[in-house]
Amino acid sequence: MKEEQENKGNKEKQEKIYVMGNWKMNKLPGDVLSFFDKLIPNLRKYINEKTKNGDIKLSTIKKLETIIAVPYIDMFYANLYANEEKRIKIAAQDVFYKNEGSYTGEISPMMLKSIDVNTSIVGHSERRAMGETGDIINKKIKALLDENMKVILCIGENAEDFKKENTKKVLKKELDEALKDISDKKEDIIVAYEPIWAIGTGESCSYDIAKDVIKYIKSEMIKKGFSDPKVVYGGSVNSENSTSYLETGVIDGFLIGTSSLNPNEFLKIYINSAKFLNK
Ligand code: PGA
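YS: structure for the whole thing
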């Protein structure tokens, strides 16, 4: 009963659900067209029909924030669609921490902003595995905030740390490093809890564990001065499990890898989120 009340309380104050995709190194520019040519008409049809017949409130739709992190090379086409359908925003999967200079191969916050890409993922475990350190992640976050951009900061423990019950220790270290000396614009940072062992494996984190860990992350963020911390879950999210994550009452949405590649599956997760918020 207490649990039920707690979840209800959380839901009532839930202002937004973030339905975010991460395409990783997938989709050629041509594939971008077929993805959005499927997603956008179906998304519009759903919203028009459901808001017209009163099944879903327009205010609920407004609370859904849809962001897709695409490869740089796909941004041109993806942006054309995002300009046409404002409910969809395009993000980067990574960014460099300087705005210009001799940094071969890098893309800066200023460059992204110049093409209306105002959000970037930072610290994804796949980039950490390529050598990205907490210090670099911290610099990237500061560089994005300096440009008034939004940050999706990924944190998560590996299988070994999970088994040894080191999860919270690892997450605290990652948060401490990433958020070091960040004093303002905290509302522009969303944290994505992505247990490494659950990414791309089909082995999603149990709802109870995700709930416990995300509560912990939020409490650490509050200690760091976040007034209303936003934390999403990522790791084998699909249309079958997404509602159960939301029902934990503490999860503000998703960062979706594999299931974001398929426009129908991505839309189903969006619809599940709309239904959940509308209740
Ligand atoms: P997944 O990836 O949904 O395929 O597990 C999530 C991510 O890495 O962001």
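YS: worth flagging: Confidence is low (pLDDT under 50) at residues 4-9.
IM: good catch. Also The first strand starts at residue 17 and ends at 22.
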